[in-house]
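Troubleshooting entry. Yesterday's outputs looked truncated, so today I'm pasting the complete records for two proteins to confirm everything comes through intact. If either block looks cut off, that's the bug. Protein one:
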Amino acid sequence: MHSLKVLILEDHPFQLMALHQMLNANGVFDVLAAESVSCATQMLARRGPVDVAICDLYMDGPDGLALIRHLAEQRLASALIVLSDAEPALLDTIADLTPQLGLRLLGCLRKPASGATLHRLLSDYREAPGEPSPSPMVPPIRELHRLSTAQLAQLREQWAVNYQPRVDIDGALVGVEAKVRWHHPTLGSLAAGQFFTVLEGAGLLDMLTWHVLEKALALSTAIPLDDGRPLPVAVRLPPALLLDEELLARLERLLRQQGLPPSSLTLEIGESHCAQLAGEQLQCLEKLHRLGCRLSLDEFGRGTSNLAQLFDLPLSELKLSSEFVRGMAEDGTKAAVVAAALILARRADLGVLVEHVDTHGDWQAAHGLGRPLMQGRFIARPMSGGELLQWIDAREPEKRDQKGLAL
């Protein structure tokens, strides 16, 4: 059996010692233990790459995210274990980002670290050291794959819809994005990316999408903006649903039932899917646009579409990750992505939304783009409808009197 080489980044001496001992108990004796990012980078320079890096996210000075980027850029680790008490929204972001950086995300160790969880994560790596993890933040979800379509469909009440606020440059609320989590009784809270493939394989992505749409549009009706307009909501749309002949009629009925104008709904589609859209799907997007729904291009800069292809889409908005905005002055690739976004937005009269605004630095960088909308943990985490109402009340209590609403 391959003897693992592991790096630990943890600035708490007791936690660092405990993790070292847990690794030894798991037969891992080649351990690089570092209390800071600079110490970790020096060790790696002397002793070379590791199989697994265990990184604390929050530290004094450069944090674990800085080391994760360094590990990826220099190919100094094959796999990653996140050590953190971070909120699910940040862990979701890391789960999305890590595979794109070329690292395998084994999972998350909550503090204080559990020896049993660490043993399972290391066992997963040893069983398949070259394969990506199907479920990065929770125990393996093999049991979901064993369920029939009918059994999966019966679990829809476990699908919880949360809402992440979007604000303008002045901090005023302009809408929310609906995000779904699966609150599984034994596997815990699963982010959408961790179970999409299961539902897609069972043919249930449509059911999930309509579940989110129904909840989101009900919230739009229940919580108006200060000017009385329904709260705008954004929902991710799977490309396969664009082939459903009943999509338009069903969506119109749902909007009519809630008494909502189509403009209150933004439907998001990832740029990575745009180059593969068939003629029927493009026609459906055009029909949704004519109906009055707003269309947003997610993941701008990550896909393979060129600007000419994107000009053909009836878009209303571009979503740009803060990772491109942050540090673009020093990075030509980031600067090119941002420039392309601004060119497209200006020529096609599109709005720009910067997502993953998770730090004050992200907020400041986004301000440099003019007047984009913003969304991220620095503003607010995804939350339930009731929590959203409390968040709004806490910001502007004198303007709202809706605390009796049950969402």
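Protein two, checking that the full record survives here as well:
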Amino acid sequence: MRFFYLLLTVLLIALPAVAAEASPKFTSVAPENGAAGSEFVVQGENLTKDSVGWVYFTDGKNDSKCEIKDQQAKTVKIKAPADIKPGRYSLMILTADKSRFIEQPVKVNIQ
């Protein structure tokens, strides 16, 4: 029984650290300004299809799904929706397993 508790304790300590390392993260976007339908290249970490399911523009109230044009471990090329309204948007990730939305500190201006 002690072994079970020891194993459980180790797992509870180790799993959050492993999960935190595997989380997708955006660090920058280029260009920072564009029009509806424009393409953007987002840089970051853990951006493979196993980590990132979808990318959204969000203003905190409304979310607009972007088309993913290309996806690599450190870059994702996205296309802004053609019908998105002008404004300043944060990028948001929906994880590949659809378990979490993760709003990113990366911003885009749509003109």
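Both blocks look complete. Sanity check on protein two: The radius of gyration is 17 Å.
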